[in-house]
Amino acid sequence: MAHHEILKLLNEDLKNERMHLQFYLYHSSAVIGLHAAEYREFLTDAAKGEMEHVQQFQDRIWGLGGEPTLESNAFPTFAYAKHILAHAHKIEQLVVANYTDRIAQVQACGEPESSYLAIFYEDQLQDSYEDAERMRRILAGVR
Question: Which domains does the chain carry?
């Protein structure tokens, strides 16, 4: 895998991270129901975490001599916490699978920065895995 291909993959992942940020931020205001205030706080905190991920991806891209995309992937909208959390769980699980693949891809590329990028993706993988697990546990109690 060439250097420009690594930058392309990082930008694809950045588009997903931007989508996650927008998803959580949007739904922090859109959520309705008995416990909407608590979900608002939870989703706002999730958005803050995703903002850090966006910044980390941008930093990696700039550091590798690329330019971060301003694009974001689209997301569906919901009103009820159960649907919001179910979709949040789904997108976090997709990220876990994606970053597992990315680790293998960057390790196999043979570029000088591949070891560093593998560690970067491992950190991202851990955050997303923990987020997915948190969503699953919360969902277990949501009716």
Answer: 3-139 (1.20.1260.10)
Element containing residue 93 per DSSP (H, E): helix 81-109
Q: Are 38 and 84 in contact (CB under 8 A)?
A: no
Closest-CA residue to 122 (of 104, 101, 99, 105): 99
Here the tokens at position 63 are 């550091």
Nearest to 116 by CA among 5, 36, 2, 6: 6
Contacts of 28 (CB under 8 A, 6+ apart): 39, 40, 41, 43, 44, 46, 47
pLDDT per residue, tens digit, the chain (143 aa), is 688 899 999 999 999 999 999 999 999 999 999 899 999 999 999 999 999 999 999 999 999 999 999 999 999 999 999 999 999 999 999 999 999 999 999 998 887 888 999 999 999 999 999 999 999 999 998 87
Rounded Cα distance, 75 and 98, in Å: 17
Distances (CA, A) of 81 to 17, 20, 61, 72, 89: 21, 16, 34, 23, 12
